[in-house]
Amino acid sequence: MVNEKIKAAEENLIHVYNRFPIALERGEGVYLYDTNGKKYLDFAAGFAVSGLGYGNQKLNAALKFQIDQLYHTSNLYYHMNCGEAAQKLNQISGMDRVFFTNSGSEANEGALKAARRYAYNKKSGRYQFIAMENSFHGRSFGAVSVTGHTAYREPFEPMLPGVSFAEFNNLDSVKALVTDQTCAIILEPLQGEGGINLATQEFMEGIRRICDENDILMICDEVQCGMGRTGAMFAWQKFGVKPDILTMAKGIGNGIPVGAFAMTEKVAQASLKPGDHGATYGGNPLACMAVKTVIDIFEEEKIVEHVNEVSEYLTDRLEELVQHVDGVLERKGTGLMQGIVLKKPAAQVNNRAIEEGLLVIQAQGNVLRLVPPLIIEKEHVDEMIPKLTKALTE
Asked: Hey, what's the signal peptide range on this chain (predicted)?
């Protein structure tokens, strides 16, 4: 239970979160502990953020070192961390240029602006976006405008003009929306909030073809599904379908607030110019130290290879759950971004899982989302299954 001091402090906040009745205090590896000392197996990773888990000594040491050196200047000056983080991020993402933000929402805002600026520079007059139903791109105004859930958009309408929504994995529905005013198509290769919906190979290739034939930019939002979570460093690489603009956040900083949007050289040369975009804290020395250190750890510890190995085991165990637990209808997803479709309300199962010492997340479509730290082992999967089974059956 949350103690009275925490409850009193919470009263000073604007009530925009429906928090669970636990107060987390510390973490170690793939476990979190609350203020009462209760231990939780974490299959949520702070919304797919903490890929390296908690207490990674190399990352902690790098951040402590940077705090003693310098953690903010402004983007009027150069600093090595920003350049080195950008170089490493471009190498693993396959892109050419990157801009650092503070979050995934900001990354998507930047991507939308870059697409509009690209159209402006080409004097095409294009301004429209095609987005996907059941998508989620963030909480800022532009990001909500291209988010395919009415409940997120309706309270804030009118939204950004010129946005239409196609059916995910239905190429004909996308083609029907393309006009001579379309500047970009934005999609998640694997939808997270929308219910763990994986794009098909045909859909990704078809989107790329539509964009190439009509001089439209393809934006891939990999804020949640990027950084090793699907078994590739970025999900587009599994499809072999390269976007023009790629957005990312969450896992690239392992919990330090940082996001980024990256683009090909072609788009970089014909879109944003000095003064078009900025971020006071974006690309600060501390955040960039996190990014470059996280990438080093990924490479040194072969995190992506590990994801592919342990995710096969997770997939098998979840398929067994589908077969043997009456309340589970289907397994969805890939890598360490998976979900199960439930008969009973996901919120109810989520609450029971917490009682069992297991943290998971809900998603749209009555889906329970499993996005653990990427360092989990098979033994952690074996520990999770009985906890989840209890939450599903009791």
From this structure: none
In a domain, 27, yes or no: no
Q: Is 139 annotated as a binding residue?
A: yes
Last residue of a domain, one of 333, 354, 380: 333
pLDDT tens, residue by residue, 69-124: 999 998 889 999 999 999 999 999 999 999 999 999 999 999 999 999 999 999 99
The annotation status of 223 as a binding-site residue, yes or no, is yes
Annotated ligand binding at 360? The verdict is no
**179 marked as part of a ligand binding site:** no
Domain contains 5: no
Task: Check the annotation: does 136 bind a ligand.
Answer: yes
What's the pTM? 0.96
Is 280 marked as a binding-site residue? yes
Q: What are 39-79's pLDDT values in tens digits?
A: 999 999 999 999 999 999 999 999 999 999 999 998 889 99
